[in-house]
Design a protein that fits this description.
Elements (H helix, E strand, L loop, with lengths): L3 E6 L4 E6 L3 H13 L13 E3 L5 E3 L1 H4 L7 E7 L8 E6 L5 E4 L11 E7 L11 E6 L2 E6 L14 E4 L6 E6 L5 E7 L3 E6 L5 E3 L26 E4 L5 E4 L1 H5 L4 E6 L4 H5 L1 H10 L3 E6 L6 H12 L3 E3 L21 E5 L5 E6 L4
Parallel strand pairs: 8-14, 18-19, 19-20
Antiparallel strand pairs: 1-2, 3-4, 5-6, 6-7, 8-11, 9-10, 9-12, 12-13, 14-15, 16-17, 18-21, 21-22
Length: 352
């Protein structure tokens, strides 16, 4: 059976039949899915389960911050910052194609892990297929170095073991060639290289570093960074320069990101006017309306917040792209800058 789809032809307003396998179908509908905010996975959110001491698992997806609704296609779990806990790197189909989730659960002052790298002296040098067994107390854990684990992904050439409350662990390797070799005891926090035939765990120097804090959702500006000058438009479409330092005039500045289609945004405008007139802070409005909606947005701003300086996107819909991801930024969002134009706080939702 061949499925088909119809697509409107704007030139003659007829409908063309497309077989699913045709390139025109693939080109059109693959793009259409993302333009319309659709999802191959039905917008199902990511799930993350944490192991429990009793052997069960707890669903901490929302608490972990990993419960995005993007279409994930590959995940790599390894210790990217070498701090002793496993981080996650995820590849998606959508605009946020790569996500790095930093794990902050480990305690550098009390390491409870052992990390192992292998080097074979017979056969393939990475020792793919080797089984490493860690005995810690009355528990025994085994991992296989596969290098091909996961869908459209791989495994790092490093095995990560948790020690729990054990004070040490004993390592044994079954090499791909069949040799079973003991490498003795290792201490918590050890990073070791196991070379086939040596029966000795060689220490590897730690190379820990701090992964940067994530950017605020929908922003390309970190707290503590200066807000750049932007080239925007006025209500009538004429060019206007948005200079945060000049607008602040030495006082804290609130930049309110809003749109005319956002009821909470419009509803809080009188409060923003009050803050600007009574507080020791300045308030400006920055509309994220598309150019076709600028006239309506300008009418609303003039009626409800006429005393506030208001800026709009340029005629081509740009102007804030160095600072704001218009597709991801929830509105209303208010950026609080100091008198020098440096971002100090990001306020989500209506101001209290």
């Amino acid at each position: 059976m061949v499925a088909s789809s119809t697509e409107s032809n704007s030139d003659n307003d007829e409908f063309l039949t497309q077989a699913v396998g045709q390139q025109s179908y693939v080109n059109h509908h693959s793009v259409q899915m993302f333009e319309e905010g659709r999802s191959f996975s039905g917008n199902e959110r990511f799930k993350m389960f944490f192991g429990q001491p009793d052997g069960g698992f707890a669903d901490l997806s929302a608490m972990s911050g990993a419960d995005t609704s993007l279409d994930g296609r590959a995940v790599l779990a390894t210790d990217f910052d070498d701090d002793g806990d496993v981080d996650l790197f995820i590849h998606n189909l959508q605009r946020e194609r790569h996500l790095l989730y930093r794990n902050d659960l480990g305690d550098p002052e009390n390491p409870r892990f052992v990390k192992v790298r292998l080097r074979a002296t017979s056969g393939q040098w990475e020792a793919i297929g080797a089984t490493v067994v860690l005995e810690a107390g009355d528990r025994k854990v085994a991992q296989v170095l596969s290098r091909g684990a996961g869908f459209a992904s791989c495994q790092a050439p490093e095995l990560h073991f948790g020690l729990g409350d054990a004070t040490s662990g004993r390592l044994t390797v079954q090499w791909p060639g069949g040799l079973v070799e003991s490498f003795g005891d290792v201490q918590p926090g050890a990073r070791v290289l196991l070379v086939e035939g040596t029966a000795k765990a060689e220490p590897i120097a730690a190379r820990s570093f701090q992964l940067p804090d994530p950017l605020p959702a929908g922003l390309f500006l970190r707290t503590g960074e200066p807000m750049p000058t932007l080239e925007l438009s006025g209500a009538d479409g004429t060019p206007r320069t948005f200079d945060p330092r000049k607008l602040a005039d030495g006082k804290p500045l609130l930049i309110n990101l809003w749109a005319s289609t956002c009821a909470p945004c419009v509803g809080e405008m009188p409060d923003l006017v009050r803050i600007d007139s009574e507080d020791d802070r300045r308030v400006v409005l920055l509309s994220l309306d598309i150019p076709d909606d600028r006239a309506r947005a300008a009418e609303i701003a003039a009626k409800r917040a006429g005393s506030l300086a208001t800026f709009y996107l340029r005629d081509d819909g740009t102007g804030v792209d160095d600072v704001v991801d218009k597709l991801r930024t929830p509105i209303p969002t208010t950026l609080e800058l100091d008198g020098e134009g440096v971002l100090r706080k990001v306020i989500r939702g209506v101001l209290e």
